[in-house]
């Protein structure tokens, strides 16, 4: 698969910016049972302790923690489905991004400031403060221009690489579920 150039990526920006501000849709749920393994799920369980049940987030650990477990504010990685469709070019390549949830929703900092709660299925998640940025694996899979695009000033303001979140009310989520801002706890 040939990676897109910066100009090709920029040409898709307006489509991404037209993502729903609320009442978005869950387009894909991906579980990462082991490093570099991906399992697409029709339905997933979001749990307060382990995030997406079956995912290796907690046991994979984080350089940001001292206990050897995943960072509690990085339980879930969520990416805009329009952004990944542009970058990956084919839906079967979305899962290579390494995120668990791909949603058609405006993930910009303006629309979803830190602390925003989102309801999905019977679960509620909360956007956390840790930025989600492109990395070495992202470059390998989608190209240097894609990483520069998502990490650019506009890319960061729109959270094109995605956002981190934590589960605050466990529940079941399904592909096709609405994802919407909520004021309830």
Automatic annotation (TrEMBL):
Top-rank taxon: Bacteria
InterPro entries in the record: Benzoxazolinone_Detox_Enz (IPR052353), MoCF_Sase_C (IPR005302), Pyrv_Knase-like_insert_dom_sf (IPR011037)
UniProt xrefs under Gene3D superfamilies: PK beta-barrel domain-like
All residue ranges annotated as the MOSC domain in the record: 76-180
GO molecular function: catalytic activity; molybdenum ion binding; pyridoxal phosphate binding
Protein name: MOSC domain-containing protein
């Amino acid at each position: 698969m040939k990676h897109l150039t910066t100009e090709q990526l920029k040409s898709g920006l307006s489509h991404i910016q037209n993502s729903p501000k609320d009442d978005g849709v869950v387009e894909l749920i991906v579980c990462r049972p082991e490093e570099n393994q991906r399992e697409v799920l029709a339905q997933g369980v979001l749990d307060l302790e382990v995030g997406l049940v079956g995912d290796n987030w907690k046991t994979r650990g984080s350089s940001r923690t001292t206990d050897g477990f995943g960072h509690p504010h990085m339980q879930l990685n969520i990416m805009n489905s329009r952004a990944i469709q542009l970058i990956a070019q084919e839906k079967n390549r979305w899962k290579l991004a390494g995120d668990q949830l791909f949603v058609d929703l405006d993930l910009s900092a303006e629309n979803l400031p830190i602390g925003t709660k989102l309801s999905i299925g019977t679960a509620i998640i909360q956007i956390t403060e840790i930025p989600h940025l492109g990395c070495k694996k992202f470059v390998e899979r989608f190209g240097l221009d894609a990483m520069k695009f998502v990490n650019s000033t506009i890319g960061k303001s729109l959270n094109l690489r995605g956002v981190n979140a934590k589960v605050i009310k466990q529940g079941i989520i399904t592909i096709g579920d609405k994802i919407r801002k909520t004021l309830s706890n």
